[in-house]
Amino acid sequence: VKKKAKEEEAEGEEQFQPVPYPKSVFFIVGNEFCERFSYYGMKAILSIYLKKKLHFTEDKATVIYHTFSMFCYFTPIFGAMIADQLLGKFKTIVYISIIYVLGHLLKTLAAIPTLGIPPVEFSLIGLALIAIGTGGIKPCVSAFGGDQFKLPEQERHLQTFFSVFYFSINAGSLISTVLTPVLREDVECFGDDTCYSLAFGVPAILMFVATIIIIMGKPLYKMVPPQGSILKRVFGSIGYALKGKCNG
Q1: Across residues 127-152, what is the average pLDDT?
Q2: Which residues pair with 189 in a beta bridge?
Q3: 11 or 196: which carries more pLDDT confidence?
């Protein structure tokens, strides 16, 4: 009896033994801050760039702006499918981030008049790649952060992480929304009294930094392999239930 009591006591101590806070999440939070800075910084001056530099009418600029925003919130479906069924969250984030950086690069190059490249075409292609990038990683980053915690032992740590994570989103968005228009308006470049190339270039650099940060943390990450499509399992369960009900 004493031996059994000691074993139960040892199991209880092991169960409540604190688990160290995963250092990997700091890379994920840093990545999210830089990514949100790049997205909202670019978007803060997009509308005025379409009208004043690409010379779109008010109506066309509005259509392009809102079409871009729509695709940013449509592409997460495909990012989630790729992560769940094929690559896993980490590889999906890295590969799509490269597309994201390329989109920012094209957008920045299009704003440099001395290069002589077609600004409209490069800008629209850049916007398409940015929409794929920001939407593709959107469903993966926060979930990847959640994977780093051991539950239920670290439930409170997980709640703290999501609070800090969403603070980083708001902080990156706020700072970039304030800073990018200042860079556009107060800096002169290429003989113009504004500098769109710098205003787009800073978000591009931040997105490149975001990609580097997420890669740097690779040795520390807990990698969860792809689990398959949840939709397939949901519809399979519904079909099985309906079949059972029809057969009585």
Answers
A1: 95
A2: 192
A3: 196
pLDDT of residue 98: 97
C-alpha 181/C-alpha 49 separation (Å) is 11
pTM: 0.87
| Residues in Cβ contact with 17 at an 8 Å cutoff, skipping those fewer than 6 apart | none
Q: Identify the DSSP state of 53.
A: T
Dist. CA 104–CA 34, nearest whole Å: 13
Rounded to the nearest integer, the mean pLDDT of the chain is: 91
Q: What is the pLDDT of residues 54-90, one digit of tens each?
A: 999 999 999 999 999 999 999 999 999 999 999 999 9
Contacts of 5 (CB under 8 A, 6+ apart): none
Eight-state DSSP code of residue 189: B
pLDDT in tens, 179-196: 999 999 999 998 889 999
Residues in the chain: 248
Q: Is 190 left (phi over 0), alpha (psi -120 to 50) or beta?
A: left
Rounded Cα–Cα distance for residues 216 and 223 (Å) = 14
* DSSP secondary structure code for residue 21 in this structure: P
* Alpha-carbon torsion, ordered 210, 21, 157, 94, to 10 deg: 20
DSSP result, 93-152: HHHHHHHHHHHHHHHHHHT-GGG---HHHHHHHHHHHHHHHHHHHHHHHHHHHHHTS-TT
Q: What is the pLDDT of residue 242?
A: 83
Give the contacts of 51 (CB within 8 A, at least 6 positions apart): 57, 58, 61
For residue 235, give the H/E element and its range. helix 230-246
The rounded distance, in Å, linking the Cα atoms of 238 and 246 is: 12
Number of neighbours of residue 85 by Cβ within 10 angstroms: 15
